[in-house]
Design goal:
By secondary structure, the protein is α/β, with parallel strands linked by helices. The chain is built from 8 helices and 19 strands. Helix 1 packs parallel to helix 3 and helix 2 packs parallel to helix 3. The longest helix has 21 residues. It is globular. The structure holds flavin-adenine dinucleotide.
Length: about 350
């Protein structure tokens, strides 16, 4: 028997699509993926700590809400409770894993069926569509929502891994305003448009100190207008011809970077309180190459602006996998909702 909706991916886009599809009685089947070094079920937010910008989650005792909402058998997955208090009250933002467990729970409450497996191949050439899980038989479905996200690229240093969430981040818009970065010199690594954008974003924050833009060459790859913006900014300082050799810290937080010159191999230490890596993202679309139209960076192409339709009939794309511009949890959840509504309309129009 053919499914009505199969959802591939378990970030904000996947769960939002599941909530909408389940509430429309489409009985969705969601593949959440498996643990790999660069990807885990629950998506990119499961790699981070505080999420201060997801609407509906102001500071407070979020844990009490999470524990009374999320099924007990998944409490093992919850991170330790941060202990910050202000005026005698708990003062912490929802943690990435907490937010994602709440989204998953909301989808489960409406009977979404969840499979812990990866989809490794698809056949979108005719109806019913077919998706192939890593284990088990191929699944047939009338519609498929691809919500597999995009993973941030990192430098690949062991010391960078040690200081993730302790001064190393791949998202200035997400993390730049957190208290741990305020009034501290910070480094942005990269030379393209997104690196310049991240540096400018950080430099424009109220409590910004010097923002170093560290680039391996002696000129930026960013567009002329973006370059000028960085070069003219009083708080942005360019560090040319340099690569990060090591992230240094006191165990709790980043304190400096060891830089190596790409010209003469000389080394220097740059004192910073944080490092934002802005060297691009990799969309999780390897299993879809040749099956869906994509842009030159491998992101799925939406056939019509502001609709989630892809080049294959009955296949919709949501979240970061189709968005190389905004890449936020709220925009991903938004397009997840859109994809479920688009699938529902497609099914209604193609009812046998
Ligand atoms: C360090 C960091 C901090 C961030 N902080 C914030 C923040 O504070 N606020 C904010 O709004 N955004 C933040 N973001 C961005 C946010 O995490 C993403 O925009 C969002 O998670 C994208 O959601 P998504 O559903 O499109 O994909 P993802 O969250 O990437 O989820 C996709 C998931 O799909 C699954 N998957 C992938 N391939 C397959 C497959 N073949 N088969 C089955 N499953 C598969 C994987 O489990 C994958 O994790 C942050 C990102 C990072 C890296």
């Amino acid at each position: 028997m053919s499914e009505k909706v199969v959802i591939i991916g378990s970030g904000p886009a996947g769960w939002a699509a599941a909530i909408y599809a389940a509430r429309a009685n489409l009985d969705p089947l969601l593949y959440e993926g498996t643990v790999k070094p660069e990807m885990i079920p629950l998506g990119q937010l499961a790699f981070t700590t505080e999420v201060e910008n997801y609407p509906g989650f102001p500071f407070g005792n979020v844990r009490e809400f999470v524990e009374t909402s999320v099924d007990k058998e998944r409490h093992w997955n919850l991170p330790p409770v941060p202990s910050e208090q202000r005026d005698g009250k708990p003062h912490y933002a929802v943690q990435g894993v907490e937010l994602m467990e709440l989204m998953k729970q909301q989808a489960l409450n409406f009977q979404t069926r969840v499979v812990s497996d990866d989809i490794i191949d698809v056949d979108f050439t005719s109806q019913p569509l077919r998706v192939m899980p890593a284990s088990g038989d191929p699944i047939e479905s009338q519609t498929v929502i691809v919500a597999t996200g995009a993973r941030a690229n990192y430098l690949g240093l062991d010391s960078e891994e040690t200081y993730k969430n302790k001064g190393v981040s791949a998202c200035a818009v997400c993390d730049g305003a957190l208290p741990i970065y305020r009034n501290k010199p910070l480094a942005v690594i990269g030379g393209g448009d997104s690196a310049v954008e991240e540096a400018t974003y950080l430099a424009n924050l109220k409590d910004a100190a010097t923002i170093y833009l560290v680039h391996r060459r002696d000129q930026l790859r960013a567009s002329k207008i973006m370059q000028q913006r960085a070069l003219d900014h009083p708080k942005i300082e360019l560090v040319w011809n340099s690569v990060v050799e090591e992230v240094l810290g006191d165990g709790e937080m980043v304190t400096s970077l060891k830089l190596k010159s790409t010209v003469d191999d000389s080394e220097r230490e740059l004192e910073v309180g944080g490092m934002f890596v802005a060297i691009g993202h990799t969309p999780n679309t390897a299993f879809l190459h040749g099956k869906l139209e994509m842009n030159d960076k491998g992101y799925i192409h939406w056939k019509e602006p502001f609709r989630t339709l892809t080049s294959a009939e009955g296949v919709f794309a949501a979240g970061d996998v189709a968005d190389d511009y905004y890449r936020q949890a709220i925009t991903s959840a938004g397009t997840g909702c859109m994809a479920a509504l688009d699938a529902e309309r497609y099914l209604a129009a193609h009812e046998a």
